[in-house]
Structures are given as C-alpha cells and as structure tokens.
C-alpha cells in the first residue's frame, strides 16, 4: 500500500515491459510520457500530466543502445526537475558503464563516476539499481543509492527448478565473483568452486579450484555480454566431469553473443534476469530462461515511497517473490 504523495512512474524506450510490470504490481497507472528522436538524433521528451510535488520514479535500464538510453534518462530527470517534482528517483536495473569503475591502466577514464555526476547534475535525488558490477560505485554518489540483489531470486530458482541441486556445486567463472558465489553456496548448503584464467590467455582455464566430478555445476556471474566467459566455464566443467551445467547471470546483455553458440554449449539452461529485455534473444535460444525482477523493484519503490527499510528485500521475502 502506498501512502502520502502519489507515486508517478515514467519510462523511456529502454525497457517499457519491465516498467509496466512494476506499475501493475503497485496498482498505479503509468504517467503518459513521449520520448522520440528528431531527424538529427536529438532526443525530445514530453510528459503529458502534471507531476508537481509528486514522488517520481523513472525506470530506465542501461542496455542495448546504452548512450541513447542514458541521455533519455538524463533528459527525463531534467524535465521532472523543471516540472517541480518533489523527489526524483532513477530506477536503473542495469547501471550503464558499470564495468568502467576504476582505472584499469594509465589514462583510462572512470566512466561509472562520470555517469553518477551526470545523474546528479540532471537533478536526480535517489538511485535504485540492481547487482552493481562493483559495490564501490555507490560511493560515487553524494545522495542515497540502493543496490538491490538478485541473489535471493537466484536461490529460489535453483531450489525450485534445478533437479538434484542438493548434489550441486556453485561455480564462479573468474576470481572477481568469488564473494558472490560463496554467499550463494553457503545459503544453499553446498560446496563452491572457482575458475582462474590468465588475462593473457582468456580462452583457457589455468586452474579449477574445487571438485565438480559427478555434480550439478551451477555457474553464477553478474553479467554476460560476449558469452566467452560462460563458454569457457561450461566446457571446462564438463571436461572435469560435471554431470550437468547450468548458468545463472544477473544481467543478460548478450550484445555480442551468438545464440547459436549458446545452443551448442554443454549447458542445460542459461538463466538471466529481465533487467534487460530478452524477447529477441529468447526467440533464438531454447536454453534461455528469464527470472522476473519486477516484484523486487516494485517492493523497493513502495518501501522507498513510504519511508520503510528495504533490507527485507535481501532475505526470505525476495526468495518468496521468486515463486
């Protein structure tokens, strides 16, 4: 139930399906909003209803045409600021440029920080996002950032949909995901494994830490783009005797992934969340399965609007929402 000032939900062109699902769960009507391009590529925004002194949530994911989607979000925020909205929250299920969170080498930009600065300058008061590539991105902001986790939804999916998961092992395809994988393994009460690859030879597994023989291997990662990491992991796990291999990923970018390659991999399923539209990919891959995050996002909006804690979203409630 929503209290106080009314909630207004807007969206651009990045992921209207998710925005509509969230609005339906909150039992609110989407605020009419037109986002279009001029012939020279400039973006025009028109909000068709008054949002004065309203609590505005703009749902816009950083996917597909990431630069256009980011500009749409910034212009929508600026338009809401100029229309005297009481508070503007950017709901960004997949944060753009999240992989550029530090200087990997000399003269490299920290673009995730630049995005944070642009959101602040546009007039954003609060950000809700999901499964940030690096938690330190929250420190780039001088206003509240709520980083939601899909981990409880993943755990619920594993328990309900992966046969014999009790005899499973949760695998991180690289060293960076070790913390995420150990947390999931602990909550499931199973073992975990770690794949180590050298940057000089990313197509080859140097070390597999953990025994996967005759077990159900569940590879967990935060993002899939080209699909090479999952490909190398799946083949290596099968070579080391895994009985079955599943992959569960937070953000299914799949921008460089050939779905025929996924079909040919020794994978039972590739499970992704719908923080990014998957319709075009699902049509070309029978192994692709989507987890719905709209219940978690809708509940975070409700709790933010009512001034309630959102820590409950990281526990049993979220696992139940994955039903």
UniProtKB/TrEMBL annotation:
EC number: 2.7.6.1
Record SMART domains: Pribosyltran_N (SM01400)
InterPro entries documented for this protein: PRib_PP_synth_CS, Pribosyltran_N, PRTase-like, PRTase_dom, Rib-P_diPkinase
Record bears the keyword Magnesium: yes
Keywords: ATP-binding, Kinase, Magnesium, Metal-binding, Nucleotide biosynthesis, Nucleotide-binding, Transferase
Domain (Ribose-phosphate pyrophosphokinase N-terminal) ranges: 8-123
UniProt keyword annotation of ATP-binding present: yes
SUPFAM superfamilies, alphabetized: PRTase-like
Catalytic activity: D-ribose 5-phosphate + ATP = 5-phospho-alpha-D-ribose 1-diphosphate + AMP + H(+)
UniProt record similarity statement: Belongs to the ribose-phosphate pyrophosphokinase family.
Entry-linked NCBIfam families: PRK01259.1 (NF002320), ribP_PPkin (TIGR01251)
Annotated protein name in UniProt: ribose-phosphate diphosphokinase
Organism: Somion occarium
Taxonomic placement: Eukaryota, Fungi, Dikarya, Basidiomycota, Agaricomycotina
């Amino acid at each position: 139930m929503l209290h106080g000032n009314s909630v207004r939900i807007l969206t651009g062109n990045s992921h209207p399906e998710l925005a509509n699902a969230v609005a339906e769960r909150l039992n609110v009507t989407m605020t009419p909003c037109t986002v279009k391009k001029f012939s020279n590529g400039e973006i025009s925004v028109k909000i068709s209803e008054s949002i004065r002194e309203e609590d505005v949530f703009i749902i816009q994911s950083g996917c597909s045409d990431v630069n256009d989607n980011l500009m749409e979000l910034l212009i929508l925020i600026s338009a809401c600021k100029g229309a005297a909205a009481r508070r503007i929250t950017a709901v960004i299920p997949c944060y753009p440029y999240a992989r550029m969170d530090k200087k990997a080498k000399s003269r490299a930009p920290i673009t995730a920080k630049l995005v944070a600065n642009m959101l602040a300058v546009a007039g954003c008061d609060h950000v809700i996002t999901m499964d940030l590539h690096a938690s330190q991105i929250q420190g780039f902001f001088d206003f509240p950032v709520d980083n939601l986790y899909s981990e409880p939804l993943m755990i619920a999916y594993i328990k309900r949909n992966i046969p014999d998961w009790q005899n499973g092992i949760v695998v991180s395809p690289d060293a960076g995901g070790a913390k995420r994988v150990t947390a999931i393994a602990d909550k499931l009460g199973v073992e975990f494994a770690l794949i180590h690859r050298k940057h000089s030879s990313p197509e080859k597994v140097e070390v597999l830490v953990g025994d996967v023989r005759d077990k159900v291997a569940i590879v967990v990662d935060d993002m899939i783009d080209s699909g090479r990491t999952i490909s190398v992991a799946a083949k290596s796990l099968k070579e080391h005797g895994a009985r079955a291999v599943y992959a569960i990923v937070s953000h299914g970018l799949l921008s460089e992934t050939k779905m025929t390659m996924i079909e040919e991999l020794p994978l039972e399923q590739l499970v992704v969340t719908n923080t990014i539209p998957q319709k075009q990919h699902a049509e070309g891959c029978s192994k692709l399965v989507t987890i719905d995050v709209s219940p978690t996002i809708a509940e975070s909006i409700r709790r933010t609007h009512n001034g309630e804690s959102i820590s409950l979203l990281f526990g049993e409630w979220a696992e139940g929402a994955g039903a």
